[in-house]
Amino acid sequence: MFQTLGAAIGPVLVAWVLARFTGTFDESIESSAGPDQVRVQLPTFAGFHGSFAIRVLWTPALGVLASFLRNYHFAEASAPATRGRPKALPVPPRFVE
User: Fold this and answer.
1) Rounded to an integer, what distance in angstroms lies between the CA atom of residue 52 and that of residue 50?
2) Which residues, listed in sequence order, are joined to residue 32 by a DSSP beta bridge?
3) Which of 16, 47, 58, 73 could be 43's S-S partner, Cβ–Cβ 3.0 to 4.6 Å?
């Protein structure tokens, strides 16, 4: 669950943080007309530090959240049915090839 959530939210969050902390830099390039100066806008170190800080803060928080999640386990197929809500998921049958 956290892997899917992180894959969906992580790149968007990092892109947002890096876009907030940008700086304008002068870069020299070589072209057929000779050397030229180009201004580029790139993320600064503060952006990378900010994205790392978010990760450092979220990791323990999500670890605590994960400790409260219910751990589902499979019961044997021969286990008797329980009344009301079952406590475990049934094991699917195995087919012999």
Assistant:
1) 5
2) none
3) 47
Q: b/e for 68-86, b at 16 or more Cβ within 10 A?
A: eeeeeeeeeeeeeeeeeee
Distance (Å, whole) CA 82 – CA 87: 8
Could you tell me where the DSSP H helices lie in the chain? 2-20, 45-67
pLDDT digits (tens, 9 = 90+) for 31-78: 888 888 899 999 999 999 988 998 899 889 888 887 877 665 555 556
pLDDT score of 40: 92
How far is the CA of 18 from the CAs of 36, 38, 83, 90, in angstroms?
A: 27, 21, 54, 47
Overall residue count recorded for the chain in this entry: 97
Q: Tokens representing 24?
A: 């304008």
- Tell me whether strands 34-43 and 74-75 are parallel, antiparallel or unpaired: unpaired
